[in-house]
Design goal:
CATH topology of the largest domain: Cathepsin D, subunit A, domain 1
Radius of gyration: 23 Å
Structural class: alpha+beta
Shape: globular
Oligomer: single chain
CATH architecture of the largest domain: Beta Barrel
Number of domains: 2
Strand content: 35-45%
Largest sheet: 9 strands, mixed
Number of strands: 25
């Protein structure tokens, strides 16, 4: 067989097919399956970054870093396309933008989608209401072509806002594109990424890189990931729930001592939240361990690391990552307390760890960001 393969390289393809009995050559997968190793292998090495010979597309969407507080990119909706800036939010599942039906202050200082100017728009007659941590929006649902990251997604359901909460008037972005699971979607609306996968446009995972200190380069990659954005290996963490991108955290430690999440806790990996949030008592404990919520800017180099222990692996944040520096308010930690027992690993965490969101196998992959 080895001689036949060498000969094949010197012959035309038609001759090659005659000389090598391909039906007798087992694939790598077949060999691994015979040894009972395929499941383990596919979980350990589930992806090829930007596979050159794949029939799937890879969509790179550049995002603007808004003062390390939010990350947004541009999508277009309709025919001809109308462009909007949207926050790519793994903590929600709906796409919505302001519309000409809305007269809220938040709509009046943002771009509005005009359905009468799109030849491909279809109204569903259904209403939409979404509650976020800082307010809500209401509107109606329609279908149209959505373009994101160079990928055209026909027949995408989305929200056209009729009212928006006051805080949205201060957003640089016009709307939100949710990237969580379909079960979290309001009004049963199919999320954009789920629609991409079901239409066979991309593979069933996407990745997120968030830049630091308002720098450029942030991106979300649909159907691929970029090794240039991380160093070392990827740690794969199974989801504990498939609504949010929810995982189990073992503990939070400072200098080897547990300061929060004692005995384990649940957390979601959320690109739409600026800080790391958790129960008030736990957040107070973390802040006390590092010297308080507000700290001396000149002391950042002396402050301890904070480690999130997840699935047997340590994910450490240095003080330079978890302390926010402001010309107006001085320096404060990026930890926020709340009443919910569900932790939120927001942008403070994701900036340090390049994240792959695997909807096919229900895993999150984390690797040290560069």
């Amino acid at each position: 067989m080895k001689a036949a393969i060498i000969l094949c390289a010197m012959l035309a393809l038609s001759e090659c097919m005659v000389r090598i009995p391909l039906n007798k050559v087992k694939t790598a997968r077949e060999k691994l399956e015979e040894q009972g190793l395929w499941e383990e292998y596919s979980m350990k090495y589930p992806y090829r970054p930007f596979a050159k010979f794949s029939s799937y597309a890879v969509g790179n969407e550049q995002m603007t870093n808004d003062a390390d507080l939010a990350y947004f990119g541009v999508v277009s909706i309709g025919t001809p396309p109308q462009s909007f800036r949207v926050i790519f939010d793994t903590g929600s599942s709906n796409l919505w933008v302001p519309s000409t039906y809305c007269s809220s202050a938040a709509c009046n200082n943002h771009k509005k989608f005009n359905p009468s100017q799109s030849s491909t728009f279809r109204n569903t007659g259904k209403s939409l209401q979404i509650q976020y941590g800082t307010g809500s929006m209401t509107g109606l649902l329609g279908y149209d072509t959505v373009a994101v990251g160079g990928i055209q997604v026909p027949n995408q359901i989305f929200g056209l806002s009729q009212t928006e909460a006051p805080f949205m008037a201060n957003m640089q972005a016009d709307g939100i594109l949710g990237l969580a699971y379909p079960r979290l979607a309001a009004s049963g609306a199919q999320p954009v990424f789920t629609n991409m996968v079901q239409q066979g446009l991309v593979q069933d995972y996407f990745s997120v890189y968030l830049s630091r200190n308002s720098a450029s380069g942030s991106e979300v990659t649909f159907g691929g990931y970029d090794p240039n954005h991380y160093t070392g290996s990827i740690t794969w963490i199974p989801l504990s729930s498939e609504t949010y991108w929810q995982i189990s955290v073992d503990s939070v430690t400072v200098n080897g001592q547990v300061v929060a999440c004692n005995g384990g806790c649940q957390a979601i990996v959320d690109t739409g939240t600026s800080l790391i949030a958790g129960p008030s008592n736990d957040i107070s404990s973390i802040n006390n361990a590092v010297g308080g919520n507000y700290v001396q800017c000149g002391n950042i180099g002396n402050m301890p690391d904070i480690t999130f222990n997840i699935n047997g692996h340590a994910f450490t944040l240095p003080a330079s990552a978890y302390v926010r520096q402001s010309n107006y308010y001085g320096c404060s930690t990026g930890f926020s307390g709340g009443g919910d027992s569900l932790w939120i690993l927001g942008d403070v965490f994701i900036r340090e760890y390049y994240t792959i969101f695997n909807m096919g196998q229900n895993y999150v992959g984390l690797a040290t960001a560069v």
